[in-house]
Amino acid sequence: MPTKSERASLVLKRLDELYPAPPIPLAHDDAFTLLVAVLLSAQTTDKRVNIVTPELFRRGPTPAAMAKLTVEEIRGIIKTCGLAPQKAKAIRELSRILVAEHGGRVPSTFAELEKLPGVGHKTASVVMAQAFGVPAFPVDTHIHRLAQRWGLTDGSSVVRTEKDLKTLFPEKSWNKLHLQIIYYGREHCTARGCNGTVCEICRTLYPRRNKPVTTRK
User: Fold this and answer.
1) What is the CATH number of the domain that holds 96?
2) Are 181 and 143 in contact (CB under 8 A)?
3) Among 140, 175, 207, 209, which is most exposed with the fewest C-beta within 10 angstroms?
4) Nearest by Cα to 14 from 177, 163, 138
5) What's the gap between Cα 41 and its chain centre?
6) 54: containing domain
7) How sure is the predictor about 46, in pLDDT bands with cuts at 50, 70 and 90?
8) To the nearest 10°, the Cα dihedral for 17, 126, 145, 88?
9) pLDDT tens digit string along 65-90?
10) Which residues of 130-166 are buried (b: 16+ CB within 10 A; e: fewer)?
């Protein structure tokens, strides 16, 4: 059986073959619209976010413009997204803060981003990686699950998974690899389609595995 480092190398090689240049799945124009789109994506599909954001960004393309909208107006536009009431309040308030405290710009540090309403570590990591090119490894539920199936982490927590993945993979690969795992998970190693014994990578890493992998949430 390959070691953890060998498994990581196999994963990286195959994902580079499958997804040499993975696009960012959330439609956006700049750091601000990316920030809002990632915030909206919590407990909602990227497809749904991409349906509602054109109108939202038409009316609030900048922090200043978004801050002029009411919470009710924002909620009306994003109402089909999960947790719309909370997200509408967060979008309105973070836009106001960006104008009042950051000159209408999205800050480019983890500390400043994570102080904004509705912005947790994962959201900040996506913005840092994809808007500013800072090495980061955002871990969502699906990446957390796949990392367990592939034996790259024990799955005890998302924090542990992020730490383990950062240790196993070269820093220069993090920003792209985050997207590669997302695409592979959606297309090949889905929650219903693979239990650790079905998809190509799972079978390659564990050819003798014959029992489903129970992953932690």
Assistant:
1) 1.10.340.30
2) yes
3) 207
4) 177
5) 8
6) 31-132
7) very high
8) -140
9) 999 999 999 999 999 999 999 999 99
10) bbeeeebbbbbebbbbbbbbbbbbebeebeebbebbe
DSSP element (H, E) containing 121: helix 121-132
Radius of gyration over every alpha carbon of the chain, rounded to an integer in angstroms: 18
Residue 87, CA distances (Å) to 53, 139, 189, 190 in order: 13, 20, 29, 27
CATH number at residue 190: 1.10.1670.10
* Pair (37, 82) in one structural domain: yes
Mean pLDDT within 44-48: 95
Does pTM top 0.90 for this prediction? yes
Pair of tokens at residue 121:
């570590």
Neighbours of 106 (CB within 10 A): 22
pLDDT tens digit string along 85-140? Answer: 999 999 999 999 999 999 999 999 999 999 999 999 999 999 999 999 999 999 99
Write down which residue in 112, 132, 152 finishes a domain. 132
Please report the pLDDT score of residue 60 as a whole number. Answer: 98
Amino acid in the structure at residue 59: R
Look up residue 66 and give its two tokens: 């978004």
